[in-house]
Amino acid sequence: MEGMEDTINEVETETETVTFKDLGVVDVLCDACEKLKWTAPSKIQREAIPVALQGKDVIGLAETGSGKTGAFALPILQALLENPQRYFALVLTPTRELAFQISEQFEALGASIGVKCAVIVGGMDMMAQSLMLAKKPHILIATPGRLVDHLENTKGFNLRALKFLVMDEADRILNMDFEVEVDKILKVIPRERRTFLFSATMTKKVQKLQRASLTDPVKVEVSSKYQTVDKLQQSYLFIPARFKDVYLVHILNEMAGNSSMIFCSTCSNTMRTALLLRSLGMMAVPLHGQMSQNKRLAALTKFKAKSRSILISTDVASRGLDIPHVDVVINFDIPMHSKDYIHRVGRTARAGRAGKAVTFVTQYDVELYQRIEHLIGKQLPLYKTEEEEVMLLQERVAEAQRVAKMEMKDQDEKKGGKRKRGDGEDDDMETSSGVRKRLMGKKGGKFGGGKGGKGARGGKGGGAKGKRH
């Protein structure tokens, strides 16, 4: 390992002098990079941009946080400058939040040349999106489900003139079973186009897709095996499942002042943990697929603006989201797929910064944890805690668990009462401590809340299961 790190560092020092101009990027875009404080191209950008500018299809494999968006955005904007047209490029992404983030980067890079982008994702108003499409933007950033809805239902909208297709986080697009939607999209866009596939991990499904949609592609691989960044301090904590909450509160107390992301496996556990931490006075905000899209964006905005220091999320936020100030990632629930571990911990230690990741391992998770160690090729150190010290928190946490349980029950009953779009007003729980008092008077119907549609799916919002809106 040591020898390998040396060679990587040597390569880096040799290529440090490379500028975007050297890669063939035109002056107006070099200036845009400078404004964004992108001083030098990252590894994936150094490899992918020259190939893309030569007119080739690209498959880019690079660990998360390595500047993949810039690697496809710059060549597309450069081609757009040479040949301006509407509906020029389509970027498909698995989650809505990632779509908004990619759009921000395109707009920032293309600000001086007047690039118009439209984000087409589920959970937002179809009519408003149709009006955006009628203005014929240059770049479309979409989740597959909602894009198919528009292709099938919006009059006058088609992508027959499309020049570029990008699939970002391609493995996740396919893992979330968007295969049917992707096939439909591939059928209605021109064969004579350029295609870029970007992913942090390569799967069999991605290889299948590559055969179907790329012509003579160049594979640009920055990390040959699954890896996490060197500046990330990873550790694990082996604890009995019933004490997970106590240990979580202990670690958050220890790391007070840091900005943390906590990953849970289900939407309800995300909500429960957020309620638990809020009742202990911590600034926590949840993000999961059953929240309405506006609430999801609001939660993310609060966390990005640092008005909340803890973001508790399902895997909806594990991909691609770039929040510069995340200091700690806690895997409260161990990920079912070991590759998701790499994406989750990649939310911290981005772009050369340092960060910490702690994974909770209970007696039920040992096998999953061993798979993660096998995948990243190293054994992680144990996170040191003093059991007696942790257990001092037990009573306070037990009380908070009771409060959280009651609030969850109240929210369920409330959702049962107005079983509209899974759109409970307290998703963000700004007023969570007062929720119960307010709700006592107006308990709803007899059933629990409707199960929200898969949140990250493009076409499905938070309604009764599977209902598109």
From TrEMBL:
Residues 404-415 have a biased composition (Basic and acidic residues). GO terms for biological process: ribosome biogenesis. Its main location: nucleus. Residues 49-220 form the Helicase ATP-binding domain. Its EC number is 3.6.4.13. Gene3D superfamilies: P-loop containing nucleotide triphosphate hydrolases. It is an enzyme of class 3 (hydrolase). Keywords: ATP-binding, Helicase, Hydrolase, Nucleotide-binding, Nucleus, RNA-binding. One of its GO terms (molecular function) is ATP binding. Belongs to the DEAD box helicase family. DDX47/RRP3 subfamily. This is RNA helicase. It is found in: Nucleus. It catalyses: ATP + H2O = ADP + phosphate + H(+). Residues 435-445 have a biased composition (Basic residues). Residues 446-469 have a biased composition (Gly residues). Residues 231-391 form the Helicase C-terminal domain. Residues 404-469 are annotated as: Disordered. GO terms for cellular component: cytosol; nucleolus. The lineage of its organism: Eukaryota, Metazoa, Ecdysozoa, Arthropoda, Hexapoda.
